[in-house]
């Protein structure tokens, strides 16, 4: 990163969709499905301790393996946040904790550098 430090900034994004997710709810009476939702989070260091900060959580989409969300989020990332943002997808369950289905970690600093080189919106 040519010696640049992450100085924070306003993060704006849209969670658009997920495609061809795996069915994690197995049911003898009906077809296997999932009720997916997305959680966007970042680590924050406070008093030398790492703490996960939830930036946004989408609504869950019942029985949908290719959900469309179209949900916008906005968050002020301070220099105390990690420049990495995690997008986790989970299966919603009413009676127990959400089941993790997958995740991806995106380095915001890399996106900013990429955007400066191309001078166009990032998708």
Q: Care to describe what's here?
A:
The chain has 1 helix and 6 strands; from the N terminus they run ββββββα. With 123 residues, the protein is mainly β. Strands 3-2-5-6 form a 4-stranded antiparallel β-sheet. It has a two-stranded antiparallel ribbon with strand order 1-4.
Which key phrases capture this entry?
single chain; 123 residues; mainly beta; two-stranded antiparallel sheet; 6 strands; 9% helix; elongated
- Identify the strand order in the major beta sheet: 3-2-5-6
Mean pLDDT: 83
What series of H and E elements makes up the topology?
EEEEEEH
Q: Span from first to last CA?
A: 21 Å
Could you give a short description of this structure?
With 123 residues, the protein is mainly β. 9% of the residues lie in helices and 48% in strands.
């Amino acid at each position: 990163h040519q010696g640049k430090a992450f100085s924070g900034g306003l993060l704006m994004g849209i969670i658009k969709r997920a495609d061809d997710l795996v069915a994690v709810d197995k049911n003898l009476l009906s077809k296997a499905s999932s009720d997916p939702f997305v959680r966007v989070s970042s680590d924050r260091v406070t008093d030398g301790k790492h703490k996960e900060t939830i930036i946004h959580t989408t609504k869950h989409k019942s029985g949908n393996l290719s959900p469309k969300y179209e949900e916008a989020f906005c968050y002020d990332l301070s220099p105390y946040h990690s420049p990495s943002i995690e997008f986790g997808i989970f299966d919603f369950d009413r009676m127990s904790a959400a089941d993790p289905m997958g995740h991806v970690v995106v380095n915001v600093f890399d996106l900013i550098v990429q955007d400066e080189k191309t001078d166009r919106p990032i998708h």
